[in-house]
Each structure stands twice: as C-alpha cells, then as structure tokens.
Amino acid sequence: MLEVYCDGGARGNPGPAAYGFVVKDKGQIIKEGAGFMGIATNNIAEYTAIVEALKWLATNFNNQNLMFFVDSQLAASQLNGIFKVKNAKIRELLFKIRELENQFRQVFYKHIPREQNKEADRLVNEVLDKQVSAL
C-alpha cells in the first residue's frame, strides 16, 4: 500500500496558498509534489493537495491501494463521510477526488497530528516562502 502525506496552507485565510504531497512506498519517498495556488483558503489548499496527489498517482500507480495521511481533521472527517461538505468549492474538489479514486483499488484517509506531516508541510512552506519573497 502506498502512503501519501498531504498538506495545504494559506498565509492569511484566504491568502497566498500552496499544496504539498509526499508519496512513499515501503517508507521510501518516490515522489514529492507542490505548487502555488494563488489566493485560497487553508481548506481549499488541503483538498487541492489530495487532488494533485491522486492525479499523479493515477498516471503512475493506478489500481493500487492508497493510504492518505492528512493533518486536517475537517478534511479527514469529510473524506470519510463523517462530516457533510457545505462549501461549494470544496464539494467540487470532493467530486473530483471521488472520480479519481475510481482508478484505485482502495483509498483510505487518516487524520494525523501536524508533527507527523512535516515533509508535506515543508513543501507547502517552501512554495509560500518563494512566492511571498517574489512579491
């Protein structure tokens, strides 16, 4: 089972936002991805990280089992069907995630403490630091 660590963040909420993801196979990093999103909220950034990771995985590792680790309790609860999604933009991202999930055997989402998501968080902050210093 591939492990996928995702994070998103915005400086200000909304504000300049970025996403990051790290894919591991047997504990070894096989892909790091990150990107700047413009102005967005933290929640939109969290979901975008999952979408971008799934898009990369669909191209390179379809039909696998995936375990996603996120430090957003809200995203984990919504993705696991515990909380309803009321925000229209997040609902769009959730539909995209569900569409992409069809290319895999099983996809799981687990909430983890922020301290256990340092690699994805580092990617988000690197992108934001570059963007903010470029302004």
TrEMBL record:
Coiled-coil positions: none
PROSITE patterns named in the record: RNASE_H_1 (PS50879)
Taxonomy, superkingdom: Bacteria
InterPro entries (alphabetical): RNase_H-like, RNaseH-like_sf, RNaseH_domain, RNaseH_sf
First and last residue of the signal peptide: none
Domain RNase H type-1: from-to ranges: 1-135
PANTHER family associated with the record: OS05G0353850 PROTEIN (PTHR47723), RNASE H TYPE-1 DOMAIN-CONTAINING PROTEIN (PTHR47723:SF24)
Name of this chain's protein: RNase H type-1 domain-containing protein
